[in-house]
Amino acid sequence: MTTSLPPRAGRRCHNVVNTVHSTLYFSPDLDRELGALGVTDPTAARLAARSAALGAVGAGTVAATFYNYNHELLARHLPAVWETASPAAVLDARLRAVDATLRRLLGEETVASPEMAEAAELALRAAEACTRHARPLYAANADLPVPDAPHLAYWHAATLLREHRGDGHLTALLSLGLDPVEAVVSHTATGKAMSPRWFLSSRGWRRADWDAAAERLRERGLLDAEGELTESGTRLREELEEITDRLDTAPYEHLGIAGVERLTGLARDFAVSAAGAGAFPADLISKG
Questions:
Q1: The pTM is what?
Q2: Within 10 A of 237 (CB to CB), how many other CB atoms are there?
């Protein structure tokens, strides 16, 4: 799809919008809300919170839609978690956790600000151009009602934009032949992704799985002996993001240049505030 937007404008907008969205999955408020429903395992809580829009699904569906989780880990929690808390109850708890998280990280003044209301309106307008076909996580969340409160509407719209891009990203990964672990190993080599420690602990893979994926990437000429991207590896990662951008053009083209620039600026301010308030672990992003 052709676009009138500046290069990577949609990607830049997505990255800052998604930063605030992602705070939920590192939030003690999510643990508290899901714990009150009886879901006390942090991994189960996060799996339930993200997959609840799909309904009472099992490990296979989540492995397919989340892509980089080990099926063995998923099977320990799904579909069993739905016997403790229904998807509807989890979605309600998720929204309560979002409310508490954004109020804690951004402050009551920002949550109630005209800027938050404007950001919500812009993000929802962008999401109007998202499409459901071959995008299961987006489509499931798109069927949920838009919350009334602007900060919750903003988070909901961020969810739609995140999952729309994410669903397309999986298509790009498949087209370029990167399996779940290879995708993260190559991403980590860019210096912009979750560290191996966080990936292994949260996704259920072993260090041997990581090392085997790195060896496969070396055999393809994508990583060097030190685990750095080769020229071919860098080109592949660039192609991956360019395909993802192309598949995710519609919402930002629909919003227009001025709207994308305004949403990016507002979202960046929110993201900086959230990060400064300690939303993410200090060692989340690294190659070590």
A1: 0.96
A2: 20
